[in-house]
Amino acid sequence: MMTTGLTAVACGGGDGSDDFVRDPAAAAAAALDAAAAEFDGSVTGDGTTSTVAQQNQPNDTTPLTIPGIVINEYLLAVNECFDRVERLNRGVVSTVTTRLPCDFPHQAQVFSRFAYPADHPSFYPGDDIMEDYALAACYVYFEPWVDSVYETSALNIGAITPNRNNFEEQGYRFIQCYVERADGEPLVGDARGSGL
Questions:
Q1: Which is nearest to 170 in space by CA: 9, 7, 8, 26?
Q2: Is-contact 158 180, C-beta < 8 A?
Q3: Strand partners for 83
Q4: Is residue 71 part of a domain?
Q5: Is the dihedral of CA 65, 67, 72, 74 positive or negative?
Q6: Which residues pair with 167 in a beta bridge?
Q7: 116 with 175: CB under 8 angstroms?
Q8: How far apart are CA 15 and CA 34, in angstroms?
Q9: Is residue 28 part of a domain?
């Protein structure tokens, strides 16, 4: 059964200018800068963990330390491992994605990246169509990468997809497929060729 235990979040940033259309990575980098500003610029790290300021309540500034380096999820490359932590920030749920070595326990690993087949400009096809397309395409790439048949695998498939804003305004088309354990336990080590 294919799941989408992790969902895409807005790339944010950018003003729809040609620079963002030509360079989705620039749009993603701008979004990461905006996210850091949203966290009051207080994302710090030592190479293995990141500390993010929390403001769950007006007087609560207790920092949250999480494994890995904070990254915009659209910048994750094939074979990279990551975690996502949801937290309440001033009454709004926000998501922090961190990249970490695959030797560390992690939630997911990217196994494929490809573009949705639509030129820019074009209208966003909708969340359901985008998700269905992404999961069907990810399914095709799963077995050769994991070295296991999906239906008997211990892994689930998920996808990080563009949203309406970064699809229509920024011309971003990339989809990243990832695996996560079906039992909800963390992955440890590289899932590529693992036969899980």
A1: 26
A2: yes
A3: 98
A4: yes
A5: negative
A6: none
A7: yes
A8: 12
A9: yes
For the ranges 55-59, 121-125, 188-192, the lowest mean pLDDT is seen at 55-59
The CA distance from 177 to 104, in Å, is: 20
Contacts of 109 (CB under 8 A, 6+ apart): 79, 80, 81, 82, 102, 178, 179, 187, 190, 191, 192
CA distances from 146 to 44, 118, 151 (A): 34, 28, 12
Type of residue numbered 155: L
Owner of token pair 């309440």: 88
Domain that holds residue 29: 18-181
C-alpha of 8 from chain center: 6
Helix (H, G, I), strand (E, B) or coil at 92: strand
CA dihedral 89, 93, 94, 96 (to 10 degrees): 100
Q: Both tokens of residue 16?
A: 């729809």
Could you read off the pLDDT of 122-177 as tens digits, one per residue?
899 999 999 999 999 999 999 999 999 999 999 999 999 998 998 898 888 999 99
Is 59 within a domain?
yes
Q: Indicate the number of domains in the chain.
A: 1
Verdict on whether the full-model pTM lies above 0.90: no
Q: Phi, psi (5° rounding) for residue 195?
A: 70, 10
